[in-house]
Design brief:
Helix content: 25-40%
Oligomer: single chain
Number of domains: 2
CATH topology of the largest domain: D-amino Acid Aminotransferase, Chain A, domain 2
CATH architecture of the largest domain: Alpha-Beta Barrel
Strand content: 25-35%
Shape: globular
Length: 273
């Protein structure tokens, strides 16, 4: 099912600024047991994104009703919510009175990997822009080109860095490294998406005996880690079995009790799909 501004239709205007310029935001929401997973966190990120991009936020109750309509009794699915600035004349300058376009898609639950990931390293780099950092905006061409490398690398996911070589995230995931009792994830102050599960892990890590912090991470830090794992709203916590560096050398990780405590906590608390 696809809803556009509440109507069942797969069509949007060709002059929509989301299509023309990537002028908008999106959220990918897991539906488990017929309920939206972590909707308040998704709404909070969408609200912050609208404020930073100066896109009027539609009534959250209206958005909620449209999500419920698209869900239509499905027990397990994915809802993608896209919000654009709406239609406009040719040119980059935003219209003075934007009327946002709301798009809700119901998609089947994907076939997710059941085994730990083999993580590679993208050649594609992420550009730094603090004004857009952390947002889940529609300009995702860097991730598209990064994901295009996966087959050639023969990996499940690939790490993306910025122009300085700082680790940022996977093409569709956030990344964490455990070393001793410390849990580190890259600083997203200049690029990358602040994922919903990333925030949950940072909030809950101390309950599992881990001290969370946001840091500058290099590939050497991942290689030296006791464990590495990936997160997003659909995969939950995805352990990494091996990291393949830029030279093709594979660095494998042994079982890690700290990571298992964290995974157990998220499973028991029903925080993962």
């Amino acid at each position: 099912m696809i809803l556009v501004n509440g109507d069942v239709t797969p069509q949007i205007a060709v002059v929509d600024r989301g299509l023309a310029y990537g002028d908008g935001l999106f959220e990918t929401i897991a539906v488990v047991d017929g309920a939206l997973r972590h909707w308040p966190r998704h709404l909070d990120r969408l609200t912050q994104g609208c404020a930073r991009l100066a896109i009027p936020l539609p009534d959250p109750d209206l958005i909620g009703r449209e999500l419920d309509t698209a869900l239509a009794g499905e027990a397990r699915a994915v809802l993608k919510l896209t919000l654009t600035r709406g239609t406009g004349e040719r040119g980059y300058r935003p219209p003075p009175a934007a009327r946002p376009t709301r798009i809700v898609q119901r998609l089947p639950w994907p076939a997710l990997a059941s085994a730990p990931a083999r993580l590679g390293l993208c050649a594609m780099r992420l550009g730094r822009n603090p004004a857009l950092a952390g947002l889940k905006h529609l300009n995702r061409l860097e991730q598209v080109l990064g994901a295009a490398e996966l087959d050639a690398l023969d990996v499940d996911e690939a790490l993306m860095r910025d122009d300085r070589g700082h680790c940022v995230a996977g093409t569709r995931t956030n990344v964490f490294a455990i070393r001793g009792a410390t849990l580190a994830t890259p600083d997203l102050g200049e690029c990358g998406i602040a994922g919903i599960m990333r925030g949950l892990v940072l909030d809950r890590a101390s309950r599992c005996g881990l001290a969370p912090h946001v840091a500058t991470l290099m590939t050497a830090d991942l290689i030296a880690a006791d464990a590495v794992f990936l997160t997003n709203a659909l995969v939950g916590l995805w352990p990494v079995a091996a990291f393949v560096d830029a030279t093709g050398i594979e660095h494998r990780y042994a079982p890690c009790a700290a990571l298992e405590r964290l995974r157990h906590h998220f499973t028991v608390e029903r925080l993962v799909p």
